[in-house]
């Protein structure tokens, strides 16, 4: 081998770092250690998994898909004509049965399926500057095609996300007694106080020939338009739930809830599904069996591995090798240095 002599490699400083003599953790994976570690992980994870699963099972959830059922029988073949006809009454009533006692607060969500709020051009079609303060009103470049009206005045809030705001509404009653829906505090406080200005009022919104969704009251500042704030926090997956409001009384088992839906929102043109969800919560949040299952699976696997190692260790313990084998002058493999 030939190396260029002029390379002038410097000898490294003689320190613990360059000589790789720093203190280090070198665990010796003896059978006892490995078995104890796996058993310990298993014993921690299984109770956590059981607790999560139990909490998730206690959550009471009512899910009702209504996008098909809310179109009258004789219009089922042409749902699009139905939803686009503004003279047709879109009111629809559904009856829901409370399966078990539902403790307040009961969260009301709408769930959309096959709605890609994560599409690149859709996600970018908004102006955060404009939403935040009145000075940014004319900042609408990112909002096209919903930036300005045909006569050139700015739209506030601009962009496709705001334009396509969900606009179905729900009313609830039990035995003709109305259940109040609390629509306050459904948005994140960080959004309300830092992203949506209290001096920004809707302007020229939904005034074009194509109406994409809900309208906004132009005398209420954006920071208090919580439905809009919730909608503008775009979902990452095509099936998502968004908070609509809260019912703040307990619902007794077997009670029948009458839901009055204004079925306005057009998901029919792209085959989207709409569901209404009523759900209680527990300490893990809403209904979610996955977390508990994941803990149980992992804990179970760890215990299984621990048990396997114990068996192997009992049946065929591994004998310690002869350490003198390692010394340099015994070189049975005959490697040359
Ligand atoms: C809209 O609905 C009304 C009442 O049902 C009906 O008379 C009219 O023809 C419909 N319009 C269209 C465009 O389908
Ligand atoms: C609701 O949104 C749809 C579009 O999805 C629109 O056609 C309709 O006019 C809107 N209705 C109301 C009452 O805002």
TrEMBL record:
The keyword Transport does not apply. It is found in: Membrane. Pfam families: CDC50 (PF03381). InterPro entries: CDC50/LEM3_fam. Keywords: Membrane, Transmembrane, Transmembrane helix. Its main location: membrane. One of its GO terms (cellular component) is plasma membrane. It comes from the Eukaryota. Residues 127-149 are annotated as: Disordered. The chain crosses the membrane at residues 33-55, 293-315. Residues 127-137 have a biased composition (Basic and acidic residues). Belongs to the CDC50/LEM3 family. This is ALA-interacting subunit.
């Amino acid at each position: 081998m030939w190396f260029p002599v002029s390379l002038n490699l410097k000898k490294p400083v003689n320190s613990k770092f360059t000589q790789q003599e720093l203190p280090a953790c070198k665990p010796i994976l003896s059978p006892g250690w490995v078995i104890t570690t796996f058993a310990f992980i298993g014993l921690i994870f299984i109770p956590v998994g059981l607790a999560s699963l139990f909490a998730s099972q206690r959550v009471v959830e009512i899910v009702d898909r209504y996008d098909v059922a809310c179109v009258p029988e004789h219009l089922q073949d042409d749902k699009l004509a139905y939803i686009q006809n503004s003279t047709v009454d879109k009111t629809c009533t559904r009856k829901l049965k409370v399966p078990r006692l539902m403790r307040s607060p009961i969260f009301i969500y709408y769930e959309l399926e096959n709605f890609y709020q994560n599409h690149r051009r859709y996600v970018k079609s908004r102006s955060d500057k404009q939403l935040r303060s009145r000075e940014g009103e004319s900042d609408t470049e990112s909002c096209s095609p919903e930036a300005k009206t045909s006569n050139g005045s700015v739209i506030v809030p601009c962009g496709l996300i705001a334009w396509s705001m969900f606009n179905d509404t729900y009313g609830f009653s039990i035995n003709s007694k109305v259940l109040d829906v609390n629509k306050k505090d459904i948005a994140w406080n960080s959004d309300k106080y830092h992203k949506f200005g209290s001096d920004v009022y809707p302007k020229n919104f939904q005034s074009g020939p194509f109406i994409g969704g809900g309208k906004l009251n132009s005398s209420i500042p954006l920071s208090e338009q919580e439905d809009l704030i919730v909608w503008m926090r775009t979902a990452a997956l095509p099936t998502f739930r968004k908070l609509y409001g809260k019912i703040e009384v307990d619902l007794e088992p077997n009670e029948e809830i009458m839901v009055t839906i204004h079925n306005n929102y057009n998901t029919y043109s792209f085959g989207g599904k709409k569901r209404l969800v009523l759900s209680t919560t527990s300490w893990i949040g809403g209904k979610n069996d996955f977390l508990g299952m994941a803990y149980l699976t992992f804990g179970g696997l760890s215990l299984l591995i621990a048990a396997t190692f114990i068996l192997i260790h009992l049946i065929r313990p591994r004998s310690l090798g002869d350490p003198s084998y390692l010394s340099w002058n015994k070189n049975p493999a005959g490697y040359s240095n």
